[in-house]
Amino acid sequence: MFIDRAIISFGAGNGGDGCLSFRREKFIPHGGPDGGDGGKGGNIILVSSQVCQSLTDFKYKRQFQAENGGQGRSKKQSGKKGADIILQVPAGTVVKTFPDEKLIFDFERLGQEFLLAKGGKGGRGNIHFKSSVNQAPRRIEKGEKGEVIKVILELKLIAFAGLVGLPNAGKSTLISKISAARPKISDYPFTTLTPNLGVVDFKERSLIVADIPGILEGAHQGQGMGLEFLRHIERTRVLLFIIDVSPFSSLPPMKNYEILEKELSMYQVRLLQKKLVVVATKIDLATEDRTRIDVLRKFCRKRRIPYVEISALRGINLEKLKKTIFAFHEPD
């Protein structure tokens, strides 16, 4: 199951208490203090790893508590340090405060590490409180409390291009034809309920394309799980508007485009500043009357938006589409 949002409570370990102890050995009846320090509490650490592809590991466990530090011991021995908890998250995970959703950290790439909750410092043993006027101190320090925090973990997929369209527009068929991704494909809306990633190759170069589940009118208000789907578009550099131009579509192509543009602008206006390609799909089903299609094509030409007519099922113009996408791609 693909999980892209979780609310989790984390508690770092408490520091161990310092030890109250005095040296007791044969022939040394009045030995001085020898109480050691408490151990430091364990930390909570998040690491972005390629092992994780979603936040599924956080579906059933919503609380994590690191180990407390051990109590100081006699003979000046420090307590054991509490074990850290190191949790792996996918690259693209954003950590936010709960419930106000202020950004704490953004895992933009693999291999990043973030100390989310710091373990408490161990308390000092009575050996530290010996002085010229107090040779047998009975004072110690309690260990500090570890940090406790409740956060929102939110995954935003990292892909170069995102396929955006209304339900049943043909996005899953397209990604299955231009990459090795094998999403579920059927002729009913909302077949795709989770994003799919595919690697697209073209002339010894490659990039990642994300198939975003279908967007309904009103998605920016949460219609059809719209908010969950729209967040995955934020990190893409290029948007592909997948528009069904077949006569079986319930909406004219231009109306289809207007809905997608509106939903993206209402969710986050800067999404419309991304590079855009309009992809007219199911062109093999188009009738001789191309009036509605020509309206969309002329609109794109006027706005200088790259426009490609394809049939994913028949393999029409797929290489042309790849060439158009890769024109925006700068190799590493």
Descriptive labels:
single chain; 332 residues; alpha/beta; Spo0b-associated Gtp-binding Protein, Chain: A; Rossmann fold; 2 domains; 5-stranded mixed sheet; 15% helix; 23% strand
Task: Explain what you see.
The structure is a single chain. This protein has 5 helices and 14 strands. 15% of the residues lie in helices and 23% in strands. The longest helix is centred in the last third of the chain and has 15 residues, at 253-267. The strands form 3 sheets. Strands 10-11-9-12-13-14 form a 6-stranded mixed sheet, sandwiched between helices. The protein has a 5-stranded mixed sheet with strand order 3-1-8-5-6, with no helix packed on it. It folds into 2 domains: 1-155, Spo0b-associated Gtp-binding Protein, Chain: A; 161-326, P-loop containing nucleotide triphosphate hydrolases (Rossmann fold), CATH 3.40.50.300. The protein is α/β, with parallel strands linked by helices and 332 residues long. A hairpin with a 2-residue loop joins strand 10 (196-202) and strand 11 (205-211).
Number of strands: 14
Uncertain runs are 183-192, 219-226
Basic shape:
rod-shaped
List the secondary-structure elements in sequence, H or E: EEEEEEEEEHEEHEHEHEH
- Radius of gyration based on Cα positions: 29 Å
CATH superfamily of the largest domain: P-loop containing nucleotide triphosphate hydrolases
- Through-space gap between termini: 32 Å
Helix/strand-derived class? alpha/beta
